[in-house]
Design brief:
The chain is an alpha+beta fold. Helix content is 38%, strand content 11%. It is built from six helices and five strands; from the N terminus they run H-H-E-H-E-E-H-E-E-H-H.
Length: 198
């Protein structure tokens, strides 16, 4: 037995009430923010903040604890990479952006290690499947740093094993704010270099 489709009234078929309600919400937010910004210009209502766009990089949002930031490879106490080149992260990756080349480890107790470990951040969708798939906690996304957004070639967006391991070192030595500071400094240096190259 088929369920009959609900009947729409004439007003619902015209969509006019919903369109007007949407325009009303937009207008209400616009007028509120415009009024607050004008009052702020005259030094009034400073305690009430109007909705504004975050003026990145001068102003930064604080990311939540569950934020999936840029990847990092964890290291052992001796400074060696924790990854065992098992390829589970690359297999679990729906975007196929992780590229690993395994090699024989110099230590006979260790079977293999990643000679090459690269993540193509232009392809990555930051789903966290690689973190979940890793059996030895070798890859994490707890850097609180957003993905790189500056580059001139595709190679600028490929993060190598050294870059991924260095993030763990910075995080351990100087904390998560240092990662963001380093990234912003790199952006400024790239921008200055690009300006000089014109």
């Amino acid at each position: 037995m088929a369920i009959p489709a609900p009947r729409l009234t004439l007003a619902e078929r015209l969509y006019l009430p919903e369109v007007l309600r949407g325009v009303g919400v937009t207008t209400r937010h616009f007028v509120r923010n415009l009024t607050l910004h004008v009052l702020h210009l005259f030094g009034v209502a400073k305690s009430r903040r109007a909705a504004v766009t975050t003026q990145y990089p001068e102003e930064r949002k604080v990311y939540a604890d569950g934020y999936r930031g840029a990847h990092r490879l964890t290291v052992k106490p001796d400074g060696a990479v924790r990854c065992t080149a098992c390829f589970l992260c690359a297999t679990a990756c729906p975007a196929k952006c992780i590229h690993i080349e395994a090699g024989e480890h110099p230590d006979p107790e260790v079977e293999k290690f990643p000679v090459r470990y690269e993540i193509d951040t232009l392809q990555c969708i930051y789903c966290g499947m690689c973190v979940e798939a890793c059996p030895c906690d070798a890859i994490r996304m707890d850097t609180y740093v957003h993905p790189k957004i500056w580059g001139y070639t595709r190679e600028d967006f490929i993060e190598t094993k050294q870059v991924l391991m260095a993030r763990s070192g910075v995080l351990a030595e100087r904390g998560r704010d240092a990662l963001m500071g380093d990234m912003l400094r790199e952006y400024r240096e790239d921008e200055a270099a690009a300006a000089e190259g014109r």
